Amino acid sequence: MAVVTANARGVSPRGSRPPAPGAGGRSEESWKGHIIRELKHRDLSQHAMFQDLIRFYTQLLEKTSLTKGLLSSAARRPPAGGAPLSSLQQQSIQLKKTTGELAYQVVELTQQIKIKDGVLEEQHARLLQEQRCLSRVSDAHQELQAQVEQVQGQNTVLKVEYDTLLEQQRAAEAKLRQETVRGEELLAKVMKRKNQAAARMNSHNERRSRAREATQAAARSKVNLDRSAVHPLSSTSPSSGFSNSSSAPSSRSTSPKNEKRDASTERKPMRLVRSASVTSPRILTSIKELFDRKRRGHSVCSQEEDLVSPVRICVSARVPARALQVLDAHEQDINAVRFSSSSDLLATGGTDKVIKLWEVRAGLLTHRGTLDGSTEGITCIEFDPMGFRILAASYSKAAMLWQLGDSVPKVTLTGHSRKVTAARFSSITHQVVTGSADGTIRLWDLRRAACLQSRNVAKYCSDLVCSENCIISGHYDGQIRAWDSRVASCVQVFPAQGKVTSLDLSSDHCQLLSCCRDDCLQLFDLRRWSNERVTFRADGFKCGSDSTKAVISPDCCYLAAGSADGAVYIWNVSTGKLETRLPDKHSSSISAVSWSLSGEYFVSVDKSKRAVLWSDM
């Protein structure tokens, strides 16, 4: 190729003479043949791809052949003169130069063809890769299409099921409306029957009261006839008396017994009218048994409930110092605890829907029984003054009354629209008071199981206590309200310092204790009926919940409450300072505490099912 390029530029190797015609022809034929063979080989492989190049190269060959013919004819023809030969030589040199340039262009084009072949192969490889990727994408598209069709089928099935369920729901709602109407009708019928039964019970109770009054009047009155009232009757008419005495023996003269009876009659004065004091006990007993049977058959009260409650006075309460017993009293949180009036019985209630009774003896709590019947958790417990009955409030919007020997409630008081937070025995026999989260306070008659009064405060009632003709209630609006039960009106409002969680009344009914969410206890003097109060606080004391209970000791000298840190705090009323702190026995917030009326024992319960019995022994 270097030789071809030099000849094309008109430079002769080894001198300036032009090469011989024969030698130049052989060299031209050799590289032309080589080029032709290469081009033919490429034409076989890439004929369709390089048509333009082939056509251009063919024209080049034609020009080369023409040049070769001209050179050969010039070599055979002798030169006539010097000028034409030089022109032909110049043309030959020009043609060689053009041929060299064309050959150089062919080489360059060959290199470009190789580059394009590489690019083409790379593009072909990429094309194959893209085709494989397209194939995979197509397969994924088909799979997704199949999944879409499957999901559409499932959606169709779900749509059918949804339509079916919608129709069932509509039918159920229609049935629910019908059942609601039916339930309202049944409730109206039940209320009507209850009213009728209450009216009959009232009538029976009135008859019983009248009969009791009559029997008591008959027992007090005695008809005694004096012996001096008998003799005048026999002496005022001797003839008639004689005739009577003579006529009687005439018919019984043959009987010796009659003679003995006459003799005894003569020795002992005759009692013409029998005293009522002799027969009245049997009559009164029969009447009393008759009415007792009726009362036991139709009344919700028992004979023990009519007894007058004894007045128990604690001279000095013991300040608890150590734990006598720690036990898990319930299966869930414990919300309420209360001692009976005799101090030998303890009741606890919690969210496990039961009330458990514990016998207190020798510093230990022994399980005595369980009171069932509540459908929700217990919020408050109260013993009656005699200790025969237990009253409880619950989350089931009702209050229940148990007889101490029965495990099921004897009376259920319903009427509140939300949970009942407090239930207390009233100072009037057979009446109780309940407070609820619905903001109402209700007065109930246990004999009829009916509501006598309802007071709507429209504020959450957390707790209440009862005194003579007075009901005191605490509310979440930070107010303590005193009500006159005779006129059903609010007579006094005591502002507190936060949500009122509990109330407690001292044994002499002269002091009122309130526990608030602002982590303090407040003591009011009810004899003054003023807003003055004594506030008790302590470092570390924190009210643990909206229903934390605080109590006054039976001797009115101490206050006690449980804290969120599981410790019991006891304050001295006279000094206003913290008397003692009892830690380490509770692992969670203390919900309620209770002091026995004897002042000997103290109990605390918490949210982790634990009850602790304390004393100073």
TrEMBL record:
CDD domains: WD40. Residues 203-213, 257-269 have a biased composition (Basic and acidic residues). WD repeats lie at residues 327-368, 413-454, 553-581. It comes from the Eukaryota. Keywords: Coiled coil, Repeat, WD repeat. It holds the Pfam family ATG16. Residues 134-161 form a coiled coil. Residues 1-31, 193-277 are annotated as: Disordered. InterPro entries: ATG16, Autophagy-rel_prot_16_dom, WD40/YVTN_repeat-like_dom_sf, WD40_PAC1, WD40_repeat_CS, WD40_repeat_dom_sf, WD40_rpt. Residues 230-256 have a biased composition (Low complexity). The keyword ATP-binding does not apply. Residues 34-202 form the Autophagy-related protein domain. One of its GO terms (biological process) is autophagosome assembly. Belongs to the WD repeat ATG16 family. This is Autophagy-related protein 16-2 isoform X1. It comes from Pundamilia nyererei.
